[in-house]
Amino acid sequence: MSLNNVLTIILAGGQGERLYPLTKDRAKPAVPFGGIYRIIDFTLSNCLNSGLRKIVVLTQYKSFSLDRHLRLGWNIFNNELDEYIEQIPPQQRISDQWYQGTADAVYQNIYTLEKEQPELVLILSGDHIYKMDYRNMVRFHHEKRADLTIACMDVPLDEGKRFGIIQTNEENRIVGFHEKPSVPIPSPNNPEVTFASMGIYLFNTRTLVKAIIGDAKQNTNHDFGKNIIPEMIHSKRVYAYPFTDENNSGLSYWRDIGTLDAYWKANMDLVQVSPEFNIYDKNWPIRTYKAQYPPVKTVYQKDLPNEPKNMILNSIVSGGCIISGAKVEGCVLSPDIRVGSNSEIYDSIIMESVRIGQHVKIRKAIIDKSVDIPDYMSIGYDKENDSNSFTVTESGIVVVRKEMPLI
């Protein structure tokens, strides 16, 4: 089975409105995650670990930081060996509009398919956290002689309204597809879950081209889930591929971190004693761009009688951080952070180049890059007061936007 005839298209142009203010200055796939990564690194690492070497990233909104990250961290392919990763913003070759939907994004870049002429096209989202070997899906696709294969997994029934819900026959052929139904259909084997699309599509190229051209001529949402797939299941061989996880933690893990609460929770998954998502598997490395930072340093000044000792528990601490007489518990600290003495940080995500003064108290917060937090400030302890200055989610997560002046 050769992967040379597979072109991977990663959709990375979404605005990420529900992640605002983290997406105020960056595209959703470029939002930092897990200390040193960007969200798109997980999809790209899946491609790399699966042996896929022809990758196109379709960008759109606020793409500068994403373009820069891909240039610095993913410039690893050799064009002479017919492998590449290319970023393509809207070209307006076919339309003078921005991408109108997932199918329209591919349609507006149909010239890429004409130029490359792959046998198969794998369409992925650049804003999900998971591990998957796409080779197994390609193998399944060939065995079923499918026109389209969709990766699927069980999700809790009460969450099904956020997904495309799938019904299959005994051969895994899809016989029903309902995009974000108000009442999801329970699985026949387990009434507490429903079978959902993961937004991972493997098309025969001819089938894809015909479908998106036909859709472009109609007044639709130009979306794979809403328009393309429901039409295809009646006329083409469309199969569901059950998600096989490469997480190596004993749990099947896939997260759509489209909201601030989901983003915070997925980061907190990493700091558990037994992390739900395993980023330490040497057999499935997650690649990213790593700036040149010195090692982590903790400071304890013995000659100061009131200087507390550092206490760092169940946390990720990235390179370049200096923690001086502070308590950090259940946190994700990105590179180049300073934490002053007598400060306490709990259950929080602190992004790059944040400066935290002395006697600061932070709880259940997301502090974006380059924020200076003055001495004695408290964040996450008074919801009403926090709401006057910051974004506060329904569950009480406080979000401080990038470079926000607090002094």
From TrEMBL:
GO terms for molecular function: ATP binding; glucose-1-phosphate adenylyltransferase activity. One of its GO terms (biological process) is glycogen biosynthetic process. Pathway: Glycan biosynthesis; glycogen biosynthesis. Keywords: ATP-binding, Carbohydrate metabolism, Glycogen biosynthesis, Glycogen metabolism, Nucleotide-binding, Nucleotidyltransferase, Transferase. SUPFAM superfamilies: Nucleotide-diphospho-sugar transferases, Trimeric LpxA-like enzymes. It is an enzyme of class 2 (transferase). The record marks Q60, W98 as: Could play a key role in the communication between the regulatory and the substrate sites. Residues 8-271 form the Nucleotidyl transferase domain. Its EC number is 2.7.7.27. Alpha-D-glucose 1-phosphate binds at Y99, G164, E179, K180, S197. It catalyses: alpha-D-glucose 1-phosphate + ATP + H(+) = ADP-alpha-D-glucose + diphosphate. The keyword Nucleotidyltransferase applies. Residues 294-400 form the Glucose-1-phosphate adenylyltransferase/Bifunctional protein GlmU-like C-terminal hexapeptide domain. Pfam families: Hexapep_GlmU, NTP_transferase. Belongs to the bacterial/plant glucose-1-phosphate adenylyltransferase family. Involved in the biosynthesis of ADP-glucose, a building block required for the elongation reactions to produce glycogen. Catalyzes the reaction between ATP and alpha-D-glucose 1-phosphate (G1P) to produce pyrophosphate and ADP-Glc. Homotetramer. This is Glucose-1-phosphate adenylyltransferase. It comes from Candidatus Scalindua japonica. The lineage of its organism: Bacteria, Pseudomonadati, Planctomycetota, Candidatus Brocadiia, Candidatus Brocadiales. The gene is glgC.
